[in-house]
Design a protein that fits this description.
Elements lengths: L7 E7 L7 H12 L8 E2 L2 E3 L5 H10 L4 E4 L13 E2 L1 H6 L4 E4 L5 E4 L2 H11 L8 E5 L3 H12 L4 E6 L2 H14 L4 E6 L2 H7 L5 E4 L27 E4 L8 H8 L3 E3 L2 H16 L5 H13 L1
Parallel strand pairs: 1-2, 1-3, 1-4, 5-7, 8-9, 8-11, 9-10, 11-12, 12-13
Antiparallel strand pairs: 4-6, 6-7
């Protein structure tokens, strides 16, 4: 990649940020995109931005001509107040993981996490329309997925969380967005799983359970996965390790297992689409991510 005075910046900000794979995988994809017939002189860099510096960092990046900013924890909600416009994706979830610095001077906020999750599931052949979905978790990841899946015209949705009250708050938001959707909040316990899983097409772990270094943790008794229909898919948003204990248990039950790497990759694809009007290769980014995770 040739860096010169014409290079455009598309950065990622967070606190912490040092763990991010985004610069590694996205820059590889920009390099792959460049050819004698097409050149995209774009560079992705990660910046550590503390909460107290968020506004000055966003305003400064815009003033310096950045194409946009990808946004990760803990800034996804706070950046909303800095936006001039919000895409419907950000309006739905009340958070933004992508800021586009439009040519007319406006800052437009988008949320691509749910879109990226849906794309990664569809890439693995998982049919979502009219499907019966169960999400384990009651935090921000579960909320974002629930709201995006509701728009994807799923058949019904069950939110399972140890603290039912947290899941119930998400249910109320989903009902406001899609009043016709059959959605329930339930306790994440053995009897509930036994009742829910036989009528579940897609089971999603939207928690950090199983993430490195707690790689032996699992959000559900693996024996209960046998209650799922044979056609069911198990999706884990965790991508480090790539094969969580949950996904390993799903494969042992001959169920389709989908890792969380696709969600990371497609947030990068979406950032390039919106901010640079470019199509980056998901295959190149997956290859680079796998190499980085294996080091």
């Amino acid at each position: 990649m040739m860096i010169n005075a014409s290079t455009k910046m598309l950065a990622i900000i967070g606190d912490p940020i040092e763990h991010s794979l985004t610069p590694c995988i996205q820059n590889a994809a920009w390099l792959d995109l460049n050819s004698p017939h097409q050149t995209c002189n774009v560079l992705n860099v990660a910046f550590h931005v503390a909460p107290k510096d968020l506004e000055s960092a966003v305003r400064g990046a815009q003033k310096m001509g950045f194409l946009g900013l990808m946004v990760t924890i803990p800034h996804k909600e706070k950046v909303l107040s800095l936006c001039d416009e919000l895409d419907i994706s950000a309006q739905d979830v009340g958070a933004s993981n992508l800021l586009h610095f439009r040519s007319d001077g406006a800052i437009v906020g988008y949320s691509s996490d749910g879109w990226a999750a849906i794309k990664s599931l569809e890439e693995e052949g998982v049919q979502l329309e009219n499907s019966r979905v169960a999400i384990m978790g009651g935090g921000g990841g579960a909320r974002s997925l629930a709201l995006c899946l509701a728009r994807a015209k799923i058949g019904h949705l069950r939110l399972l969380n140890r603290t039912v009250e947290r899941a119930e708050k998400i249910v109320q938001e989903v009902k406001t967005l899609c009043p016709e959707l059959d959605v329930l909040a339930l306790p994440a316990q053995k009897s509930t799983f036994e009742a829910v899983l036989p009528e579940c097409d897609v089971l999603i772990n939207a928690t950090s359970i199983g993430m490195s270094p707690q790689v032996e943790a699992i959000p559900i008794n693996p024996n209960l996965l046998g209650k799922l229909p044979v056609h069911a898919a198990v999706y884990d948003i965790v991508y480090n390790p790539l094969e969580t204990r949950l996904l390993k248990a799903a494969r042992e039950k001959n169920l389709r297992a989908v890792d969380g790497l696709g969600m990371l990759i497609y947030t990068n694809v979406r950032a390039a689409q919106i901010c640079a009007r470019a199509e980056l290769s998901s295959a190149v980014m997956r290859r680079e991510a796998l190499a980085a995770l294996n080091n």
